[in-house]
Specification:
366 residues, DNA-binding, elongated, homodimer, Rossmann fold, 3 domains, 43% helix, six-stranded parallel sheet, 434 Repressor (Amino-terminal Domain), alpha/beta
DNA sequence: CTGTTAGCGCATTCAA
DNA sequence: TTGAATGCGCTAACAG
């Protein structure tokens, strides 16, 4: 005998109908915000529902209505921190609207992607989907969505055409960040890029170029190295940049994890941040505060973005509003990892392998 | 007109029955692993189900069977990293067993807790629940679970009596960790504790005492300060310990986040880790690798623990096996943040506010 | 504006 | 060992 979870007897729609002295259809209308109910009736019904603590049975609704009241969060493999933040916002919005959230991690490769999407539709039948980059621009995913006519909202998609969801002006944000470095006197500023499948990779790079251009600094391709938005990208990219004959005095990493990798490389080489090297990241994830020195970065309201995308999606599903592409604002967060350009940029940095023991780590907050 | 998500026509149980030449009841029996089906019939049905890609309708099942096929992950407010890891394991186990996962964040306070639990039952009707500390030992939560006769599994509960789920021997793990410090010559070892509502707080403290006792080091209450398993605990606790007249040469923080806070305090005071101070954490979360110096810590197989707890829960729900309390093994992870005790522990550390500029940060990996 | 009637797809008594 | 009939609680045409 398996253990059943619940006493079957709970208040049903007909109990509410009886208490209100109307038919169950009227109750149904009120619940689903359908028209053709007198305002007085509607209010009375709502009151009784509240008093009886009536909770519609999800399964009955799903079965009869061909609607699941489920939103799926479809993601690939972004940073766990990022994902967790987004998830929090999405969850909050779902709960507020009495929708359920199902998590749909998608495997790598086209075949796996297709299989996972199919599995999602067969098993969970979401009424709508929230997409996280880089899946926002994955052809296989989009095709499945369109084939099944499932509405979806995107968070920071590359292409915002015909999309609903939320975005941020990464380009302008980076522009401001780099301008800050320029203001500190830096002119050789390195950049470790993110994964090219993300729109963010390109916007951030564009913002970097914008800022250099405006400052009259020539763009030096040597100072721009590839990355994947992960810690290891910071290790690899940081080494490569610092090994340059004429290394940068500041490095803009495409996100905080990458910046953490750069901080480590600097430490290993005996470079003090920000005295010998300025570093900045992007996103303002928890790690930005947790590492030492704390990162100068751009705050991205990640949870809020999840919430907004979900609300736009649900609004669209309801059909009341068309669903928009909302833009959220960023904020520059100045912390400890950026500072004035070193007064005398000697050739010492060139022989990076041979550490300069003369350098002292200067304590902050004396 | 609202947008509907799915074409209604999919293969149903009666299609399978027709194809197999049996009644739907037989199909149902096979699907639910009930007895009283001839082996040959069972196999044929399974084959046809696979060929037709038949997926039972969750809503119909839930409606008719009074079963939701939902597992709820009930959590309070632990570290996001920890939560994310656990969630990954739980999700994997749920998917493997064709269960759905619903996330159930629980608010603070008794009233909120009760309300959130009630909401969970009314709305999602989980067939089972996975509990994360410190909710594993929350009276309100447990009471709701028992009242509703919902089976649950616990991850690292304080009390393992009458519980199914998974645990780890934190006490032995810490014992090993402290023994490592003792082996490096440390005798004044500080400890920043975790939140007392967690079993882990007590086990880790006990392991710390065990190790000291075995090494013949007297337990000094002054060296043990409270904390909450968060970064800020490391800041506060670290300052307090380093401000001691006779400060410790090593600090064991109850988890990695806390250790990161200690690392920062050390940095601010110009202390080099591990040259002037050894620091270690617990959990081996990503931050342990991402900060510099990387943390010596204890690896806890968090995702695996989520997976195991869920599998035990589902086994219990099915009623086949009773459900056990599984113990997983830990592993010591030696990284960069621990080293030999400083040769001459001078009084310099006492005047912690007045930083010692003479100290040089020694580069690793020369 | 409101009520009546018929399923949605499956699990489940009770017979056979 | 199997099958036919009944209903889970709700939504959705279609009348009134």
């Amino acid at each position: 005998m398996t253990s059943r979870s619940r006493a079957a007897t709970r208040v049903r729609i007909e109990d509410v109908a009886a208490a209100a002295g109307v038919s169950i259809k009227t109750i149904s209308r009120v619940l689903n915000r359908e028209p053709n109910v007198r305002e007085a009736t509607r209010r009375r019904v709502e009151e009784i529902c509240a008093r009886l603590e009536y909770q519609p049975n999800r399964f009955a609704r799903g079965l009869a209505g061909q609607r699941s009241y489920v939103v799926a969060l479809v993601y690939n493999n972004p940073s766990l921190n990022y994902l967790m933040e987004v998830q929090g916002g999405v969850l909050e919005a779902c709960h507020a609207q009495h929708y359920n959230l199902v998590l749909a991690p998608i495997g790598d490769g086209k075949a796996r992607t297709a299989a996972d999407m199919r599995g999602l539709f067969e098993h969970s039948r979401p009424d709508g989907v929230v997409l996280i980059p880089p899946l926002t621009d994955n052809a296989t995913v989009i095709a499945h969505l369109r084939d099944n006519a499932v509405p979806f909202a995107c968070i920071a998609p590359r292409s915002t055409r015909e999309r609903i969801g939320v975005r941020m002006d990464d380009r302008a944000a980076v522009h401001g960040l780099i301008a800050h470095l320029v203001g500190l006197g830096h002119r050789r500023i390195g950049h470790i890029m993110g994964a090219a499948s993300h729109g963010a990779c390109h916007w951030r790079h564009a913002g970097y170029r914008d800022a250099l251009g405006q400052a009259g600094i020539e763009y030096d391709p040597e100072l721009v190295v590839p990355g994947e938005f992960v810690f290891e990208s910071g290790i690899r990219g940081g080494k490569r940049l610092l090994d340059l004959p004429s290394p940068p005095t500041a490095i803009f990493a495409a996100n905080d994890d990458t910046a953490a990798g750069v901080i480590r490389v600097a430490g290993e080489r005996g470079l003090s941040v920000p005295r010998d090297l300025s570093v900045c990241g992007f996103d303002d994830t928890p790690i930005a505060r947790h590492i030492y020195p704390a990162l100068t970065t751009v705050r991205q309201p990640t949870a809020e973005m999840g919430r907004i995308a979900t609300l736009e999606l649900l609004q669209h599903i309801r059909g009341a509003e068309p669903g928009r592409m909302v833009e959220v604002t960023h904020a520059l967060v100045l912390r400890e990892s950026t500072g004035p350009v070193p007064p005398a940029r000697s050739t010492q940095a060139r022989i990076a392998g041979a550490v300069s023991r003369s350098r002292t780590r200067e304590p902050r907050r004396p």
